[in-house]
Amino acid sequence: MAEKKKVEETEKVEEKKPRVKKNTTAIDSRCPSCGSKLTFSPKKNKWTCKYCNSEFTIEELSTKYKSAASKEKNKHEDLEEDEGNYFEYNCPDCGAIIVADEQTSATFCVYCGNTAILKNKLAGKFHPKYIIPFKTEVEEAKKAFKNISRGRMFVPKGFNNEENIEKIRGIYIPFWLYNIMYTATIDAKGDDVTHWRVGRTHYTKTDTYDMHRKGNMIFEKVPVDGSTRFDNDLMNSIEPFDYKDLVEYNHAYLSGFLAEKYDVDEQDSYDDAKRRVENSGEREILNTCHHGAPRVYNKDINNVVKDFYYVLLPVYMVNVKYMGKYYTFAMNGQTGKFVGNIPLNKKKVFLVTLLSLLVCFGLAFLIMCIAFVIGGK
């Protein structure tokens, strides 16, 4: 009966297909000399053309794109997008249709391989204020992933094979950066324990202190991942980023890379920033308490957001499926820090454990035999 009821209820639900918005123009960085595609080189911090071998700095390209960016921004300032929609774009090189969802800001054409920068997706409220350009090359990320099995005997064979290595892509991840004023009043107790001995008698003395602390701190550029697609713990693990490399956003930096736009706004992301600030602030204040491990029994916390920014930060990522489960690896595209969870070859773990037990059992048996022989003499 339960199965029948489920079918009847399902039949009542009207299937809602995602709507597709068409006639949107995909743009890309073009070589001022020959009109071919430009690719951003993290090492040179320049845009290069593989056809005429020209190289351009951001200053040389800024004049060309400034007027176009201004027009596009005004045109799409009030653009509202429907939740769950997909969008079609015309590749400027081969004319193929590129389909992307509402979070994708830059993608690749599956036919000609050129980067399509979906500029209208980064317009209005989705227009980033700053960006940290990639400083490391994709080959460095591939090398780091290839070397994860080095010194790890239980990594499954073929887990980091060439096929998986080629899946690594550079992605600009949306982040919110907060400047927060933290003010706190904390009351805690702490113990000083003294031990001494007189003859055979052991004495213990415990002195308990009331400790009251008050302080304020300014936390600058507290990062919070603004996309639900990426695991927060993974994004936290590749920190820190050096925010001295932040530059004013220019869509040309996206050339050759993927990009996402945020789907968690600044208000919802603030809860994570607040939690990080309060944990760090309390830890710093309690470090001034010198009577044992402090036990907090009262605290009054106040946080004030002084400023916040929407930025794009560089990350190399790869997802690998093994035994029906996905494993995600990420590398900081600025510093080269590489993180991820590595699966274990359970069969190899079992065999090694079994072999170790057999060796231990054999040694124990050998020792017993030697002891028996010696005892018999």
Return the structural class: alpha+beta
Number of domains: 3
Q: Count of helical segments? A: 7
The percent of residues in helical segments reads 25-40%
User: Low-confidence segments, ≥5 residues, pLDDT <50?
Assistant: 1-18, 20-25, 75-84
> What does the radius of gyration come to?
29 Å
Order of helices and strands: HEEEEHEEEEEHHEEHEEHEEEH
Let me know the number of strands. Answer: 16
* Span between termini: 81 Å
Provide mean pLDDT, rounded: 75
Strand content range: 35-45%
Shape: flat
| Major sheet details | 10 strands, mixed
What does this protein look like?
The protein is of the alpha+beta class. The protein folds into 3 domains: 16-127, no CATH class; 171-248 and 260-341, no CATH class; 348-372. It is 27% helix and 36% strand. Strands 7, 8, 9, 10, 11, 12, 13, 14, 15 and 16 form a 10-stranded mixed β-sheet that branches.
